[in-house]
Amino acid sequence: MKKFKLTDLLIFIVTAELVGALSALFSGDFSSFYTDIKAPPLLPPSWLFPVVWAILYALMGISAYMIWQTDDSVKCRSTALKLYYVQLAVNFSWSILFFRFRLLGLAAAVAILLLMLVGAMILAFTRIKKLAAWLNIPYFIWLIFASYLAVAVYILN
């Protein structure tokens, strides 16, 4: 295990948070779109999304740092980190597809893909460091809910 470095941890957290912030920025003004759609049951207020995502991105960054910090000799480490970065890229694309381009069907499919990628990432993290995997369980649960919302919005609109 590598020595703990606060600056490295912060780089992982800030990188994850930046992915979310840039995705939101490139998504444009989602507030008007959010009020114009036919809302599915259980749709939370719009203010809740940035709060939840800020927490989830921080947890993602912490968990990825924990995996990165493990011994280089751990064979699964590279695969786990690749899954982390792939899911982060897919995550980045979702808001843009949904809000900017209003590709609701594609966004619903991407939400389901993201859910599967995060499930695979959690399994890969489990093989290396269980706590890193557990830190992503709230993300996985949120993605189940977000997938429901994405599919429901697609069907209703």
Gist of the model:
80% of the residues lie in helices and 0% in strands. It has seven helices and no strands.
- Silhouette: elongated
Tell me the Rg in angstroms: 16 Å
Beta strand %: under 5%
Uncertain parts: none
Question: How many H/I helical runs?
Answer: 7
Largest sheet: none
Measured between the Cα atoms of the first and last residue, the distance is 50 Å
Q: How many β-strand stretches?
A: 0
> Mean pLDDT score, rounded?
95
Work out the helicity level. over 70%
The class by helix and strand makeup works out as mainly alpha
Series of secondary-structure elements, N-terminal to C-terminal: HHHHHHH
Name a few traits of the molecule:
single chain, 80% helix, 7 helices, elongated, mainly alpha, 157 residues
Structure report:
The N and C termini lie far apart (50 Å). The protein has helices spanning 6-27, 30-36, 48-69, 76-100, 104-128, 130-134, 137-156. The chain is elongated, with a radius of gyration of 16 Å. 80% of the residues lie in helices and 0% in strands. The chain has 157 residues and is mainly α.
Task: Please outline the helices and strands.
Elements: H1 6-27, H2 30-36, H3 48-69, H4 76-100, H5 104-128, H6 130-134, H7 137-156
Helix pairs in contact: 1-3, 1-4, 3-4, 4-5, 5-7
